[in-house]
Design a protein that fits this description.
The protein has a domain at 55-92 and 241-318 and 426-474: 3-Layer(bba) Sandwich (FAD/NAD(P)-binding domain). It contains 14 helices and 21 strands. The longest helix is centred in the middle third of the chain and has 23 residues, at 150-172. With 477 residues, the chain is of the alpha/beta class. Helix 1 (3-14) packs across helix 6 (195-213).
Length: 477
């Protein structure tokens, strides 16, 4: 069963705290009648200050999808906008690299649920080629490398539905939040599983929840981990990569790369932003850096951010989902879209995407999340590739070829993200996203996936947060 379908079914059957899926964009303040808000309309450069030390209308910190979308709207509406980006490229956690004519997304890759999704609308109008991912096209293997029988495949779904359902019901009746893992273990204490079933359930929890939310089950809030909305439709990847979207949004915008903001001083008179190279001035600033950067204190705010916002920063967690691309001289694996590995140890190389099925290339993409992903980041690329190959040889034999090359991500140690995307940990609530979205006075604004309550942890959530905050700024400046 498609993981999104399982989550939706669980939501419907349990009457839980989750919010049901929707077909449109909800809870967004409408743009003012005179404001331009067309994602496809090309924008013309607006007059800007004669030098970088002059005062801009708005300085946007971070040229990811949220910052680009906000800047795009602001500039469409005549504001003088400058983006400061710490990296040597735009896109943030959207990062597409070329390999032998293929576009490999090292960060965000999917448009999740195409129906009503604003990213789908942009991609379609740009003529981007979209490739559907069939999550049901999956072949699983046990720890010895033997394919799972039809009966065991059904057992995976049965165990997941039964024990997660019971765990959620138990959690809902508690006075205090607890982790999803703790709730499952309390149910298992009363109804222990065999070794085989325990492996199957661990595999299902890892690939369905831990990969989806980029957090370990022992950190995910049993009350709220899936309290977000979804669009309808399928998940798709962009054949030309997600850069298709960011390359369009950056058109005619003023962007300065390699400018890591270290200090933001704000007050009624405006905002001053300091990087290692310069001091910048604006009437208002929009902070779109990832949650992990805010949590690490990489930017010093003067005065400090309000206590409520700092407390929300301490409750919402930054997750980790890393990728390992292995490029082979030939295809030796099954022709299904996904490969699953039910290993002895939970969460180690359990899920693989077959890019031969999607792009016609002899490439396998392995995923790892949470604690195991953090542990891998302490190893060298060659060690990580060797660990991946050990799993593949367990499935397909020792005679399979060595990869020609590999590409490995390390989002957890990336100083400009410190993780992949946010999730609701034990003690966090959906209202924390609202708190993180709130402006401070009339000069300091915030956007990013961690500020979008309806669609956190997604590209479309970040994009919509950019639209929301652009409207807020336009109403004040």
């Amino acid at each position: 069963m498609h993981r999104h379908e399982f989550l939706k079914l669980l939501t419907m059957t349990l009457a839980s705290t989750s919010v049901s899926a929707c077909t449109g964009v909800l809870n967004l303040r409408p743009m003012s009648p005179t404001a331009k808000n067309n994602p496809i309309e090309d924008i013309q450069p607006t007059p800007r200050p004669t030098d970088d030390n002059a005062v801009w209308d708005v300085i946007v910190v971070g040229a990811g999808i949220a910052g680009l979308r906000a800047a795009h709207i602001l500039q469409q509406n005549g504001r003088r906008v400058l983006l400061l980006e710490a990296r040597n490229r735009i896109g943030g956690r959207i990062w597409t690299e070329d390999y032998a004519g293929l576009a490999l997304d090292l960060g965000a890759a999917w448009i999740h649920r195409t129906g009503g999704n604003p990213i789908t609308a942009v991609a379609n109008q740009l003529g981007a080629t979209l490739i559907t991912t069939d999550y049901d096209d999956l072949k699983r293997f046990d720890a010895s490398g033997k394919p799972l029988s039809a009966e065991l495949n059904r057992r995976v779904e049965e165990l997941l539905e039964r024990y997660i359902g019971q765990a959620r019901k138990y959690a809902e009746n508690q006075e205090h939040d607890l982790s999803l893992q703790a709730a499952v273990e309390l149910i298992l204490d009363a109804s222990p599983l065999s070794t085989q079933d325990s492996r199957l359930l661990n595999y299902a929890i890892n690939t369905t929840f831990e990969h989806e939310y980029a957090g370990d089950a022992d950190r995910l809030s049993a009350w709220y981990f899936d309290a977000q909305e979804e669009f309808d439709g399928q998940d798709v990847i962009l054949k030309q990569g997600y850069r298709t979207i960011v390359d369009f949004l950056e058109q005619n915008l003023e962007i300065r790369l390699n400018q890591a903001v270290q200090r933001v001083a704000y007050g009624d008179g405006g905002v001053t932003l300091t990087t290692a190279q310069n001091v910048w001035h604006a009437r208002a600033a929009l902070i779109t850096v990832p949650l992990g950067v805010l949590q690490r204190g990489s930017i010093r705010f003067e005065p400090p951010l309000p206590a409520a916002k700092q407390q929300a920063l301490g409750r919402v967690a930054m997750g980790l989902l890393n990728k390992c691309y292995l490029v082979f001289p030939e295809v030796f694996w099954d022709d299904t879209t996904l490969l699953g590995y039910v290993g002895d140890r939970k969460g180690e190389w359990a899920e693989w995407l077959n890019l031969d099925a999607l792009l016609g290339a002899p490439i396998l993409l392995g995923f790892n999340a949470g604690k195991y992903a953090y542990g891998l980041e302490t190893q060298s690329d060659s060690q990580i590739a060797a660990a991946a190959m050990q799993t593949l040889r367990q499935i397909y034999g020792k005679s399979i070829p060595e990869p020609l090359s590999h590409r490995i991500t390390r989002w957890g140690s990336d100083p400009f993200s410190f993780g992949s995307y946010s999730f609701l940990a034990v003690g966090a609530t959906p209202s924390d996203y609202d708190t993180l979205a709130q402006p401070v006075g009339k000069r300091l604004f915030f956007a990013g996936e961690h500020t979008q309550r309806d669609y956190p942890s997604t590209v479309h959530g970040a994009y919509l947060s950019g639209e929301r905050v652009a409207n807020e700024i336009l109403s004040l400046l």
